[in-house]
Specification:
By secondary structure, the protein is an alpha+beta fold. It contains two helices and eight strands; from the N terminus they run ββαββββαββ. Pfam families: GyrI-like.
Length: about 150
Amino acid sequence: MQYEIKELPEVRIAYLRYKGPFGAAIGEFWKEVFTPWQKAYGLVGKVTYGVAQDDPNTTPASECRYDACVEVPAGSPVQPPAKEGSIPAGRYAVAAFKGSGDQVPAAWDAFFRQVHADGQAAPGLCFERYPADYVMDPATGVFESELCIPVK
């Protein structure tokens, strides 16, 4: 899988947490929980992130945590039930993704293998970054995002 190494700045975020098996349920969480909350608080048209807090290969599916996040400006209040957090600054391997939600796990798997094989991987949060003008094709479910893995 092709990727670039980029220096990314720290980003202040508001997030809602999903807990349970990864896969289709995360897409439903975005659709049924996160997006309505995002709209209610005027946070549409901002960069969003998906952050897997646990490795589904080593964490029981019922205990896996995933945060749906949106960038928020400094000084803006974060309204409950959302919590405030940050995406850390640093060097990241960044790969473009274009596909449907059911293709995301295989893309992550290939990307992890490539970055580890290249000896680049470093500890830290891995995340998906969705552009402020994010759209999903309603007919095919295809969308674009970036996959980001911290590197040395």
